Amino acid sequence: xxxxxxxSCDFCHGSSVVKEVLDRTGYRLVTDNNLISExxxxxxxxxxxxxxxxxxxxxxxxxxxxEKEHAMAYLKLAMAxxxxxxxxxxxxxxxxxxPRDISHILNVCLVGDAPFRLKVANEDQGxxxxxxxxxINQLDSExxxxxxxxxxxxxxxxxSLYDMVIPMSKTSVKDAAVLIEEYLNKDILxxxxxxxxxxxxxxxxxxxxxxxxxxGHNVDVAANRGKISLTINKNxxxxxxxxxxxxxxxxxxxxxxxxxSEIGKGFHKSDIYRxxxxxxxxxxxxxxxxREFVQTLSERLTLRDMGSAxxxxxxxxxxxxxxxxxxxxxLDLKMPGIDGIEVLRRVKASYPExxxxxxxxxxxxxxxxxxxxxxxxxxxxxxxxxxxxxxxLEEANQKVQQAKQKSVN
Length: 409
Fold this sequence. Notes:
Number of helices: 15
CATH class of the largest domain: Alpha Beta
Order of helices and strands: EHEHHHHEEHHEHHEEHEEHEHEHEHEH
Strand content: 15-25%
Structural class: alpha/beta
CATH topology of the largest domain: Rossmann fold
Mean pLDDT: 93
CATH architecture of the largest domain: 3-Layer(aba) Sandwich
Strand order of the largest sheet: 2-3-1-4-5
Low-confidence stretches: none
Radius of gyration: 25 Å
């Protein structure tokens, strides 16, 4: 039996249509939350990490950690695993992960014009026109980001992405459900050997993508009858070595018969391909008001495959930490506004798992004692030996990772 995905504008009676279809067909509902839960089981990642794939915001550390891409790989795998089932209705964002060439999946989009959506927002939630407009614009922006992330189009309602687009301003909930049910019974949606093979290709590609993500890689993956095609979209200095490494990893996945790599459209841009190195810190925040010093330090750490971001005062650093949690902080003491000791005090009070290294050119013995009592892992002086700092960062990272492992166990 075929499956169906339903992607809807907000305030278009989407949940009502889904319920009506379920009642009429006896299909099993699979929500985004179900898929996130399955991805968490497959990956061992937290739901917050998996959900990061949905958000328009990208971590300042993501170019080093590939966390967003890692989460996406597991969501694809969760979806691909579930496609082997029958009579399932996928409601929400994640149905868009299903490749359009799997012909026994009916892809439905529910849309509505602005006056209709404003009316529904008022009736359902009592929102004024101004309030509803703001909410709708925000939610549409999030949907546009999601669709662009998958299909490189900024229009989430692009008709080419769906088999059926239903204008809910002209269609009742019952009529929309009847239309979907009628289409599900058409012969065109009967699973064929070709459509089953394409679903199997989707599963194999997802398995390879996860295998590569586990080793710190981020490339596009496609599969066709056991033949894997990898696309490298960022520049890399030793391309042949990278291709060989990717081939070795992908070839170990069951069902892979051959592996080919090619460069993509973004390869010749200035952005450099980075493999995530699990053994070195990749979420380091450097806090220092000496701009030239801190930028140079960040560049030197990057050359050692350590991912870092920079904040030049205590106030902006605390905002960054609240929004995008680092794992290790390198902190100066003497800064205008909120000084280093106060930053340390607030960080350890709110995020005790974050390790803090003090790096200062003006500290006293009393400052050192205070910092260590507040929970700093090390107290170091400028000018710094980069090798010594690197070793200390690795020790701090090791402590962070061990604490994470303990919490999982």
